[in-house]
Amino acid sequence: MIGKKKLSEVRRELTELLERLPKEPSGSWLEREIRAAEGQPDRDAETLKMLQAAIRRARKDKRAVPTQS
Predict the structure, then answer these.
(1) What is the DSSP string of 23-66?
(2) Could you tell me if 12 and 1 are in contact, meaning their C-beta atoms sit under 8 angstroms apart?
(3) Is residue 51 assigned to a domain?
(4) For 16-62, what is each residue's pLDDT tens digit?
(5) Most CB atoms within 10 A, among 6, 7, 27, 37?
(6) First to last CA, the chain
């Protein structure tokens, strides 16, 4: 759906989508999709690369958050 959405709604939808992806080692499915998309002019490899970077950044940020005692 295109239109104005709250960030929380976008995050929820993305989380639901990611949960439906194949349960493989982290990033391997996305890596294959990027390689496949690069050879096909009708697929958007740049968007997949941006998604991969965002996921990596989110994981890195999550690990960097100090725990409070």
Answers:
(1) --STTHHHHHHHHHHHT-TTS-HHHHHHHHHHHHHHHHHHHHSP
(2) no
(3) yes
(4) 887 787 776 667 888 998 999 998 989 999 998 988 888 888 777 66
(5) 37
(6) 42
Predicted TM-score (pTM) of this structure: 0.55
In whole angstroms, what is the distance from residue 46 CA to residue 40 CA? 12
Could you count the other beta carbons within 10 Å of the beta carbon of residue 11?
A: 11
Is residue 59 situated within a structural domain?
Answer: yes
Q: Is residue 69 part of a domain?
A: no
Number of structural domains (the chain) is 1
pLDDT in tens, 54-65: 888 877 766 665
